[in-house]
Amino acid sequence: MQLYAFTVFLARLQRLQCALKRELWL
Fold it and tell me: Where on the tree of life does the source sit, at the highest rank (predicted)?
């Protein structure tokens, strides 16, 4: 259960980073 929460958190962080990169480079 803890591992699942960590994976979800990691995925959200990756999405946020992707969105930030898009805003910065566009």
Answer: Eukaryota
